[in-house]
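Dear colleague,

Thank you for sharing your sequence with our group. We've completed the structure prediction you requested, and as agreed, I am returning the results in plain text so they can be pasted directly into your records. Please verify that the sequence below matches your submission; if there's any discrepancy, let me know and we will rerun it promptly.
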Amino acid sequence: MKILKVTDAAFKKYGRVVENVDFSGLVEELKKTPVPDGVVYEPSVKELEALPVLETLSRVTYGEMPVQIGYCNGHNVMLNALEYHRDSEVNIAAEDAVLMLGLLSDVEEDHTYDTSKVEAFLLPAGTAVEIYASTLHYAPCHVGKEGFQVAVVLPKGTNYPLKGNHAKLSDQAEGVNEDVLLTAVNKWLIGHREGGLDQGSFLGLKGKNLCLTD
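Please find the predicted structure tokens below.
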């Protein structure tokens, strides 16, 4: 799979490199977090949120919105799914990682998406990017045997369990309501049939379950 850089012009439709925030302290603290053989995601981590960068991100990057800082760590080379939020997500790498990205505008009216449109970008260690709300994304991929460590910044409350009632896939007689894709607060998910997702997930990714090493 061809891997571009987040500094390439092709990345501009998906996001931007964040250069007006000092992430050095966050990167050092992130290096202390565990890296499993699989993938782990923690939406909010007190050690990361105790750093001064939390206030800076809230004030400068998110325009005074309350934010949370967590991480996604582990070992992974597969696409498996794509998700989107109603706002940007900031990713900061402590180890080199690769992001597989797509455009929400390429999702069909029936909420399916062709994985051949996905592009991969290298996020070097120490680099931060803002992933736009219009960008499809999911778990990063590792580059080296040490795995990936990526801090994840989102508006406070994102990716926590849903409290209300939402549409179920089993109830869809004709077509699919976007509400079926909602799997957590502010998280809409389109899975691949080979992605190992929970039963009841909307499996709308068409084509190959992309692998970084192909």
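Summary note from our side: The chain has one domain: 3-206.

Kind regards,
the structure core
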